[in-house]
Amino acid sequence: MKIARTRYPFLLALCLGLAYSLFAHFFFVNGMLPENGLLSWAFLLGIPTGIGAISAHFTPDNRNSMRRIVWAPFWTVMTFLCAALLFHLEGMICVIIIFPLFLVMSTLGAVLYSTIADPRPDQTDKTLVVAAFALLPFLAAPLENQFNNPDDFRRVENTIEINAPAAVVWQHIIRVAPIQAQDLGHSLIDDIGFPRPVEATLTHEGVGSVRHATFERGVEFIETVDEWVPLQRLSFSIVPNTATIPPTTFDEHVIVGGRFFDVLRGTYELQPAGPGRTRLVLHSRQRLSTHLNWYAGLWTGYVMSEIQGRILAVLKRRCEGPAVSASVPVAGF
Asked: What are the TM regions of this chain, as residue ranges (predicted)?
């Protein structure tokens, strides 16, 4: 199939933007910022800005402005992310997380380049402008490396009302029987690769007991109970059992217990909600340690809220089920 000559500049912009993106990925994973890598300002903000500038530079300014400012950067970003998946450079989780940021910043890069370069009649000046945009992330990387990642501690809370007394609910939160996929229903976090919760065991009742909370694909968390107030409160510290988690389960940037993210605590609180009813609150505490905690927190907050909300929904159905028996220990995480 022949390609119209009028599309050559657009294809050139796409190919050069893709080459730039792949080189940047290699550089930030293996080069100057191995500690932060892709979770750095320079990569997440600077590289897509460079992509946008390159796309706008090689797409003639006599073309439709939407094609030059929006569509050229968009297709370059999409091609890069598809290549990252195809060649297993990144997992689906990371691709989904960085896509909105790359899309916004690449469009901004195209707009900034056009604003600065278009009024300049000299092609050499335009080339210097796009070179500056492309090189800036690599020049900024060593400077960013001088700053430690800030720790940001966040709390995510979910609440549900259950038509059952506290005595029944309590038996359902201290241990968990196996949860089937159909019990949880479908969620976006399944599509992007987060393992579903499976079950949790309890060594004994009371402070000092240990719960082993397991998820799909060998993910296990060791939860040590440090608050045990029957019918009122169950709280525990959380440590991932790294010995059981296969290296392919999580991308290194989102692994729980890694240098960028960790889940530290979980707490159930039972509150009276009327005769024979209980309000069950589940909240957790997480640590984020990136240079873009404000953005990463949007995603971790959503994922944790989705996980907790689905678990509470399972608990509600089990507590309110016709065959509920206080002698059968069924719980959430």
From this structure: 39-58, 70-89, 95-115, 127-143
